[in-house]
């Protein structure tokens, strides 16, 4: 069943959250509640645990899936890929934003002098780096610490 969201997007009393089970309507406009609900939904699956490792000074990191053991990599066209073996395309710069979120851009690659960011669509699919900007909400992430028992349960 497909939900019609066009009627409710403009109203102030409905906020929509994309989770594992599709769009979840929430009546409460309190953003803290929405974030807690989103964290709870994402914590139901151990597949989404990512490990962030510092590679060099200056905020350069590598991001690795704990369960899959694959590194996130960006090719020259801006497409995100998983790589079993670490290489320099797996390096990303961590950028701290003023809204307390983080953004991750490729440390090696640029497109016409512009940075290419890791970003996810509303459906959770990766966007091409050449279509992303620092200002886009799709490229904003909140890093969270994971409990040790959640990591080892994977």
UniProtKB/TrEMBL annotation:
Source taxon at top rank: Eukaryota
InterPro entries noted in UniProt = Fibroblast_GF_fam (IPR002209), IL1/FGF (IPR008996)
What GO molecular-function term can you cite, just one? growth factor activity
Q: Family, per the entry?
A: Belongs to the heparin-binding growth factors family.
Q: What is this protein called?
A: Fibroblast growth factor
Q: Which organism is it from?
A: Hucho hucho
